[in-house]
Design a protein that fits this description.
Blueprint: E1 23-29, H1 50-58, E2 72-77, E3 83-87, E4 92-96, E5 99-103, E6 114-119, E7 125-129, E8 132-137, E9 140-144, H2 150-153, E10 155-160, E11 166-170, E12 174-177, E13 182-185, E14 203-208, E15 214-218, E16 223-226, E17 231-234, E18 245-250, E19 256-260, E20 265-269, E21 272-276, E22 287-292, E23 298-302, E24 307-310, E25 315-318, E26 329-334, E27 340-344, E28 347-352, E29 355-359
Antiparallel strand pairs: 1-9, 2-3, 3-4, 4-5, 6-7, 7-8, 8-9, 10-11, 11-12, 12-13, 14-15, 15-16, 16-17, 18-19, 19-20, 20-21, 22-23, 23-24, 24-25, 26-27, 27-28, 28-29
Length: 365
């Protein structure tokens, strides 16, 4: 991690005349789009390529053309049962059975890196990208930009709260979005000696807890909790294992779990912080995401160690063993049938009877 190559963050925003300033393009039908959907030069930014840079240093094997994508950042299943895969460079892939449909910049997406996906009550799909938000419904795209500079359009996390407000974690900080307008939400500056991997303003994770409080995990400044009135900072001094908080989840029992990029996970329950690492059975010290399945098991995806399943007592670790990847896992989902899907550096995988199986194009599911 210490030797990743710094790339210049470059980005251009565009707007259309006679349109709300928060939108970068009028709605367009993908079947009618020309070869270039909108007037923009797309240059991958530093943080958009963060995973590519880090993981490519350790993983030089050429990508199999049968793989769905090189890096799968998020997995979402919609109300009809279709899967939507957000990728690091291929936009969005819609998967239904053995059919794969790709949604790209040329078709209307605002960015080629898609880190979060959500479906609203009207079955519109929302994609958080490295260049703003895209709303997609009935073959129509609407692109939204905060128009605050490239850092604020570089979206790393998205949470829609119970009131329908979008909370966006960007490379520039936190934004609130009501479907039309963007508003900055300032987090207080926290003391930290940790060097950020990308930017101290970057918000890796956003979570709404059972009481409606909003939690933020940052790149080097620890975590924050906003209860609607006050903002509380939580860092290493309070008990976290690290100030690089990649993900925050509340389990069904009310415990808060913090994932870190460099020091395993931290559990906060009954006023006590407990650090959990490889010594306790966790698959790796670099944890990217935490996920609770319908049975109450917690899953921890890692950068280099595969994935850990925690049943409340012990860990079971799973790795890809065919040499297709280096076991960098960036996303996880339990589908409607109880199957566990995993997005690796290297492709899409599914856990079948305790074995991680590669799901490739033209081979079905």
């Amino acid at each position: 991690m210490k030797h990743f190559i710094a790339l210049l963050m470059i980005g251009l925003t565009c707007a259309c005349n006679g349109q709300d300033s928060s939108k970068t393009s009028s709605t367009a039908m993908d079947k009618d789009l020309p070869a270039v959907a909108f007037s923009q030069v797309h240059v991958p930014s530093k943080s958009a390529l963060w995973f590519d840079n880090i993981l490519d240093q350790k993983w030089k094997k050429p990508t199999d053309p049968r793989q769905v994508s090189k890096y799968i950042r998020t997995i979402f299943q919609d109300k009809t049962g279709s899967f939507w895969l957000g990728t690091n460079s291929d936009g969005v892939v819609k998967m239904r059975g053995n059919e794969f449909e790709y949604f790209s910049l040329e078709r209307g997406l605002s960015g080629s890196t898609v880190r979060a996906i959500w479906e609203d009550s009207n079955q519109a799909m929302w994609f958080a990208t490295n260049n703003g938000i895209t709303k997609y419904i009935k073959h129509s795209y609407t692109r939204f930009s905060a128009n605050l500079g490239p850092a604020y359009d570089e979206i790393w996390s998205m949470k829609v709260d119970r009131k329908g407000i979008f909370w966006l974690g960007t490379a520039g900080g936190v934004l609130k979005f009501d479907g039309t307008k963007f508003t900055k939400f300032e987090l207080p500056l926290a003391k930290s000696t940790v060097q950020p991997l990308v930017s101290r303003n970057l918000v890796w994770s956003i979570m709404e807890d059972q009481d409606g409080a909003i939690w933020f995990g940052t790149d080097g400044s620890g975590a924050y909790k906003y209860d609607g009135n006050t903002i509380q900072h939580i860092g290493k001094e309070e008990g976290l294992a690290s100030d690089r908080v990649t993900n925050i989840v509340q389990d069904r029992k009310g415990a808060i779990w913090f994932a870190s990029e460099d020091a395993g996970v931290t559990n906060y329950s009954h006023g006590k912080y407990t650090r959990i690492g490889v010594e306790q059975g966790l698959c790796h010290s670099s944890i990217w995401s935490i996920y609770e399945d319908r049975s109450g098991n917690l899953w921890f995806t890692s950068l280099g160690g595969g994935v850990s399943k925690y049943n409340g007592t012990s860990f079971t670790n799973y790795k890809e063993t065919k040499g297709v990847t280096k076991n960098h896992v960036q996303s996880i989902l339990e589908d409607a049938n109880g199957n566990i899907w995993l997005g690796f550096s290297g492709g899409l995988f599914r856990l079948d009877n305790g074995v991680i199986v590669n799901i490739r194009r033209m081979e079905g599911c």
